[in-house]
Protein backbone atom coordinates (compact mmCIF):
# COMPACT_ATOMS: atom_id res chain seq x y z
CA UNK A 1 0.00 0.00 0.00
CA UNK A 2 1.40 3.36 -1.05
CA UNK A 3 2.20 5.62 1.89
CA UNK A 4 3.45 9.17 1.66
CA UNK A 5 4.12 11.09 4.85
CA UNK A 6 5.11 14.73 4.68
CA UNK A 7 6.98 16.50 7.46
CA UNK A 8 8.95 19.65 8.12
CA UNK A 9 6.15 22.19 8.10
CA UNK A 10 5.70 24.82 10.76
CA UNK A 11 5.63 28.54 11.42
CA UNK A 12 8.48 30.53 9.89
CA UNK A 13 9.21 34.22 9.46
CA UNK A 14 9.28 35.87 6.04
CA UNK A 15 12.69 35.63 4.38
CA UNK A 16 13.63 32.44 6.20
CA UNK A 17 14.09 28.94 4.76
CA UNK A 18 12.42 25.60 5.32
CA UNK A 19 12.99 22.08 4.03
CA UNK A 20 10.04 19.73 3.66
CA UNK A 21 10.44 15.97 3.51
CA UNK A 22 8.19 13.22 2.21
CA UNK A 23 8.85 9.66 3.38
CA UNK A 24 7.63 7.08 0.87
CA UNK A 25 6.82 3.42 1.41
CA UNK A 26 4.80 0.62 -0.14
CA UNK A 27 6.25 0.98 -3.64
CA UNK A 28 9.57 1.15 -5.47
CA UNK A 29 10.34 4.80 -4.84
CA UNK A 30 13.19 4.96 -7.36
CA UNK A 31 10.81 3.96 -10.17
CA UNK A 32 8.46 6.93 -9.93
CA UNK A 33 8.40 10.61 -10.74
CA UNK A 34 7.29 12.62 -7.71
CA UNK A 35 5.38 15.90 -7.33
CA UNK A 36 4.87 18.62 -4.75
CA UNK A 37 1.49 20.37 -4.78
CA UNK A 38 0.26 23.02 -2.36
CA UNK A 39 -3.04 24.51 -1.26
CA UNK A 40 -3.16 27.97 0.28
CA UNK A 41 -5.95 28.69 2.79
CA UNK A 42 -9.25 29.03 0.97
CA UNK A 43 -7.62 28.43 -2.41
CA UNK A 44 -7.35 25.57 -4.87
CA UNK A 45 -4.57 23.14 -5.63
CA UNK A 46 -1.40 24.65 -7.04
CA UNK A 47 1.35 22.50 -8.51
CA UNK A 48 4.83 23.37 -7.21
CA UNK A 49 7.40 21.03 -8.73
CA UNK A 50 8.20 17.58 -10.05
CA UNK A 51 11.31 15.41 -10.22
CA UNK A 52 11.85 12.37 -12.41
CA UNK A 53 12.52 8.99 -10.87
CA UNK A 54 16.25 9.28 -11.50
CA UNK A 55 16.44 12.85 -10.22
CA UNK A 56 17.71 14.17 -13.53
CA UNK A 57 14.65 16.02 -14.79
CA UNK A 58 13.13 18.74 -12.60
CA UNK A 59 10.42 21.28 -13.30
CA UNK A 60 9.30 24.08 -10.99
CA UNK A 61 6.31 26.37 -11.17
CA UNK A 62 7.13 29.92 -12.27
CA UNK A 63 5.78 31.23 -8.96
CA UNK A 64 8.55 29.47 -7.00
CA UNK A 65 11.35 29.27 -9.57
CA UNK A 66 14.67 30.42 -8.14
CA UNK A 67 13.50 30.10 -4.53
CA UNK A 68 12.35 26.51 -4.30
CA UNK A 69 14.22 23.32 -5.24
CA UNK A 70 12.90 19.79 -5.42
CA UNK A 71 15.25 16.88 -4.79
CA UNK A 72 15.17 13.24 -3.80
CA UNK A 73 17.27 10.57 -2.14
CA UNK A 74 16.35 7.21 -3.61
CA UNK A 75 18.52 5.41 -1.05
CA UNK A 76 16.35 6.87 1.71
CA UNK A 77 13.02 6.71 -0.17
CA UNK A 78 12.58 10.40 0.58
CA UNK A 79 11.49 13.42 -1.43
CA UNK A 80 12.48 16.95 -0.43
CA UNK A 81 11.41 20.52 -1.07
CA UNK A 82 13.90 23.22 -0.12
CA UNK A 83 12.15 26.57 0.18
CA UNK A 84 14.15 29.81 0.55
CA UNK A 85 13.20 33.48 0.88
CA UNK A 86 9.74 32.51 2.07
CA UNK A 87 6.90 35.01 1.80
CA UNK A 88 3.37 35.04 3.17
CA UNK A 89 2.25 33.86 -0.27
CA UNK A 90 3.95 30.50 0.47
CA UNK A 91 1.59 29.80 3.37
CA UNK A 92 -0.14 26.55 2.41
CA UNK A 93 -0.57 22.85 3.03
CA UNK A 94 2.13 21.10 1.00
CA UNK A 95 1.37 17.66 -0.44
CA UNK A 96 3.75 15.21 -2.00
CA UNK A 97 2.34 12.89 -4.63
CA UNK A 98 3.52 9.90 -6.59
CA UNK A 99 3.09 9.99 -10.36
CA UNK A 100 0.59 7.78 -12.10
CA UNK A 101 3.05 5.60 -14.04
CA UNK A 102 6.51 4.27 -13.29
CA UNK A 103 9.37 5.50 -15.44
CA UNK A 104 10.93 8.84 -16.18
CA UNK A 105 8.82 9.98 -19.11
CA UNK A 106 6.64 13.06 -18.98
CA UNK A 107 3.88 14.04 -18.71
CA UNK A 108 3.06 11.88 -15.73
CA UNK A 109 0.59 13.50 -13.37
CA UNK A 110 -0.04 12.89 -9.67
CA UNK A 111 -1.84 9.76 -8.52
CA UNK A 112 -1.28 8.92 -4.83
CA UNK A 113 -1.06 11.77 -2.34
CA UNK A 114 0.04 12.27 1.23
CA UNK A 115 -2.02 14.14 3.81
CA UNK A 116 0.18 17.20 3.65
CA UNK A 117 2.20 19.37 6.00
CA UNK A 118 1.23 22.94 6.87
CA UNK A 119 3.66 25.79 6.28
CA UNK A 120 2.75 29.14 7.80
CA UNK A 121 4.85 32.16 6.92
CA UNK A 122 4.14 34.90 9.41
CA UNK A 123 6.07 37.85 10.90
CA UNK B 1 -6.34 32.96 -12.04
CA UNK B 2 -6.14 29.27 -13.00
CA UNK B 3 -4.99 28.11 -16.42
CA UNK B 4 -7.94 25.68 -16.48
CA UNK B 5 -11.48 26.95 -15.97
CA UNK B 6 -14.00 25.10 -13.81
CA UNK B 7 -17.36 26.26 -12.45
CA UNK B 8 -16.98 27.31 -8.81
CA UNK B 9 -19.89 25.18 -7.68
CA UNK B 10 -22.46 22.63 -8.80
CA UNK B 11 -25.31 21.01 -6.94
CA UNK B 12 -27.82 18.23 -7.40
CA UNK B 13 -30.10 16.00 -5.38
CA UNK B 14 -29.16 12.56 -4.05
CA UNK B 15 -29.44 9.91 -6.75
CA UNK B 16 -29.15 12.45 -9.55
CA UNK B 17 -26.32 13.04 -12.01
CA UNK B 18 -23.96 16.00 -12.21
CA UNK B 19 -21.25 17.04 -14.64
CA UNK B 20 -18.25 19.28 -14.00
CA UNK B 21 -16.52 20.96 -16.89
CA UNK B 22 -12.86 21.89 -17.30
CA UNK B 23 -11.81 24.21 -20.10
CA UNK B 24 -8.24 24.74 -21.29
CA UNK B 25 -6.33 25.24 -24.52
CA UNK B 26 -4.18 23.41 -27.04
CA UNK B 27 -1.12 23.56 -24.80
CA UNK B 28 -2.76 21.56 -22.07
CA UNK B 29 -6.07 19.71 -22.49
CA UNK B 30 -5.88 19.80 -26.27
CA UNK B 31 -2.73 17.70 -26.39
CA UNK B 32 -2.34 15.95 -23.05
CA UNK B 33 -4.23 13.57 -20.81
CA UNK B 34 -6.59 14.95 -18.16
CA UNK B 35 -6.92 13.74 -14.56
CA UNK B 36 -9.66 14.42 -12.04
CA UNK B 37 -9.27 14.57 -8.27
CA UNK B 38 -11.66 14.58 -5.33
CA UNK B 39 -10.57 16.54 -2.26
CA UNK B 40 -12.17 16.66 1.15
CA UNK B 41 -10.76 19.25 3.57
CA UNK B 42 -8.03 17.83 5.78
CA UNK B 43 -7.54 14.73 3.70
CA UNK B 44 -5.29 13.62 0.86
CA UNK B 45 -6.69 14.37 -2.59
CA UNK B 46 -7.90 11.23 -4.37
CA UNK B 47 -7.40 10.41 -8.05
CA UNK B 48 -10.74 9.61 -9.67
CA UNK B 49 -9.89 9.64 -13.38
CA UNK B 50 -6.61 9.55 -15.32
CA UNK B 51 -5.84 9.51 -19.05
CA UNK B 52 -9.12 11.37 -19.70
CA UNK B 53 -11.44 8.48 -18.97
CA UNK B 54 -9.72 5.71 -16.99
CA UNK B 55 -10.61 4.85 -13.40
CA UNK B 56 -8.03 3.60 -10.91
CA UNK B 57 -8.94 0.36 -9.20
CA UNK B 58 -11.40 0.96 -6.39
CA UNK B 59 -13.09 3.96 -8.00
CA UNK B 60 -16.74 3.09 -8.73
CA UNK B 61 -18.13 3.40 -12.24
CA UNK B 62 -20.43 6.16 -10.99
CA UNK B 63 -17.47 8.38 -11.84
CA UNK B 64 -16.65 8.92 -15.50
CA UNK B 65 -14.44 11.21 -17.55
CA UNK B 66 -14.43 12.43 -21.12
CA UNK B 67 -12.52 14.88 -23.28
CA UNK B 68 -13.34 16.75 -26.44
CA UNK B 69 -10.92 19.21 -28.01
CA UNK B 70 -9.74 21.60 -25.31
CA UNK B 71 -12.40 20.70 -22.74
CA UNK B 72 -12.91 17.81 -20.35
CA UNK B 73 -15.85 16.69 -18.26
CA UNK B 74 -16.25 14.71 -15.06
CA UNK B 75 -19.58 12.94 -14.59
CA UNK B 76 -20.93 11.57 -11.34
CA UNK B 77 -24.12 9.52 -11.28
CA UNK B 78 -26.15 8.20 -8.36
CA UNK B 79 -25.07 11.11 -6.18
CA UNK B 80 -24.57 10.47 -2.47
CA UNK B 81 -24.02 12.92 0.38
CA UNK B 82 -20.55 11.39 0.71
CA UNK B 83 -19.69 12.79 -2.72
CA UNK B 84 -19.74 16.33 -1.33
CA UNK B 85 -16.22 17.56 -1.89
CA UNK B 86 -14.07 19.79 -4.06
CA UNK B 87 -13.23 18.43 -7.50
CA UNK B 88 -10.20 19.44 -9.55
CA UNK B 89 -9.09 18.75 -13.08
CA UNK B 90 -5.38 18.55 -13.77
CA UNK B 91 -3.21 18.24 -16.86
CA UNK B 92 0.32 18.86 -18.11
CA UNK B 93 0.81 22.17 -19.92
CA UNK B 94 3.43 21.71 -22.61
CA UNK B 95 4.04 25.46 -23.05
CA UNK B 96 4.56 26.08 -19.34
CA UNK B 97 6.34 22.76 -18.68
CA UNK B 98 4.15 22.53 -15.62
CA UNK B 99 1.25 20.56 -14.24
CA UNK B 100 -1.80 22.84 -14.03
CA UNK B 101 -5.04 22.49 -12.09
CA UNK B 102 -8.45 24.00 -12.46
CA UNK B 103 -9.69 26.33 -9.76
CA UNK B 104 -11.83 23.58 -8.27
CA UNK B 105 -15.56 22.93 -8.17
CA UNK B 106 -17.45 22.50 -4.92
CA UNK B 107 -20.11 19.81 -5.22
CA UNK B 108 -23.14 20.08 -2.97
CA UNK B 109 -25.57 17.17 -2.75
CA UNK B 110 -28.80 18.78 -1.64
Give a quick rundown of the structure.
The complex is a heterodimer of chains A (about 120) and B (about 110). Chain A has strands spanning about 5, 10, 20-25, 30-40, 45-50, 60, 70-75, 80-85, 90-100, 110-115, 115-120.
Characteristic key phrases:
heterodimer; A: 123 residues; mainly beta; seven-stranded mixed sheet; four-stranded antiparallel sheet; 11 strands; globular; B: 110 residues; six-stranded mixed sheet; three-stranded antiparallel sheet; 0% helix
Explain this structure to me?
The complex is a heterodimer of chains A (123) and B (110). Chain A is mostly beta strands. Chain A contains no helices and eleven strands. Chain A has strands spanning 3-7, 10-12, 18-25, 32-39, 45-51, 58-60, 68-73, 78-83, 92-102, 110-113, 117-121. In chain A, strands 2, 4, 5, 6, 9, 10 and 11 form a seven-stranded mixed beta sheet that branches. A four-stranded antiparallel beta sheet of chain A has the order 1-3-8-7, with no helix packed on it. In chain A, a hairpin with a 5-residue loop joins strand 4 and strand 5 (45-51). Chain A is globular. The relative contact order of chain A is 0.31. Chain B is mainly β. Chain B has strands at 9-12, 18-23, 34-39, 46-49, 63-68, 71-76, 85-93, 98-101, 105-109. In chain B, the strands form two sheets. In chain B, strands 1, 3, 4, 7, 8 and 9 form a six-stranded mixed beta sheet that branches. In chain B, strands 2-6-5 form a three-stranded antiparallel beta sheet, with no helix packed on it. The chains are: A mainly beta (123), B mainly beta (110).
